[in-house]
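pinging the channel bc i need a second pair of eyes. not urgent but kinda urgent?? the chain im working w is below, pasted from the shared doc
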Amino acid sequence: MAEKRMRSPGYPSMPLGEAVEITKKMFSQVRTSATDREVAVRTMGYSGITGRSGKVLANLIQFGLLEKAGKSEVRVTKRAVEILHPDSEATLAESVIAAASDPELFEELSEKFPGASASNQALHSYLLKRGFTDAAIPAAIRAYIETMQYAQQFLDSESSGRSPVSMEESAPDHDFRGREMRESQVIRSDAARPAPNVGDASREQELSFNMIGSRIALGGVVKTKADAEHVIATMQALKVLLKDSDEKAPATPSAPSPPSEQ
């Protein structure tokens, strides 16, 4: 019997802290109004919808900071507002922890590696076996580790009743969704951060990913395995922006033609 292929879960390619800062830019200009995606990415500092800015939109949706709002529109969520402008420390901590837990992959990794005790090597091995491409793994590990570190600050503050602390400070034991997360066990992200790739800029120019309504238009030429992995990783991130199905209305039958005169 053929082995069943595992489907890679959705995941953000940036950590939660960065996603919050980008959401802040959009909120400062449009608040929670439904906004066309093209306009939304411009408020974040991008020139328009591309593969890169499309990934950002997908990341914010996966953290629950943005939500779809009608055809080709998004809006800043209540959760994002509670993070940006909380009415209490408890509200802030609760919203941050919920955002950190939302991505399917992050929930899966937290269950697989309780206590945030996994090494970078263990995470890399697990994601490789899970079906992730070599191009996607470094970003996924960095996003997960730094998101857990970001959430840890608010777990600390919620438990102690003080403002979020620096990750350099020591902290007592805390519970994160029923699992211990000790400061001594927090994984440092330096080793997980991918090294700069001088080919990324040229690849971004050669391969285009543009949103047209609710569809993604692909352009360019795939020349290498690295290009192919880049396409796969980008489409994996962008698929959250797509519709679940492409249902078309049945064609209306045309009226019969009148009989021709003999």
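so The two ends are 65 Å apart (CA to CA). and The chain has ten helices and seven strands. — does that match what u expected or am i reading it wrong
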